[in-house]
Amino acid sequence: xxxxxxxxxxxxxxxxxxxxxxxxxxxxxxxxxxxxxxxxxxxxxxxxxxxxxxxxxxxxxxxxxxxxxxxxxxxxxxxxxxxxxxxxxxxxxxxxxxxxxxxxxxxxxxxxxxxxxxxxxxxxxxxxxxxxxxxxxxxxxxx
Length: 143
Description:
The chain is an alpha+beta fold. The chain is 16% helix and 38% strand.
């Protein structure tokens, strides 16, 4: 990681050139045999000759989870986990739908729970109301 850039930058290389890509700009990585298709937030798809497990090792510390044998996804790009006929899919904010395997579903749900802020009770969310006659109210102080 570069000392002036707070997230890792991957250098994706293929026959078209070299593409420096910050990890947060990667939505998902999809296996295509011995190649990996990297989906980016700007809509580009870059196919590289590294396998998916290579990117899983690099990206796992940065909120990426393997949701299927062929798919690695960044948790921050998941809009919904949806039950469909035959299993579950992860719906992403870019309208892509990726399958979630039965084996990886518990891993995905655990990762999402770990990432998300826990729900609080409604009473914990209430703010104290400053009433005009209350002893701790913010009345103007005499000079």
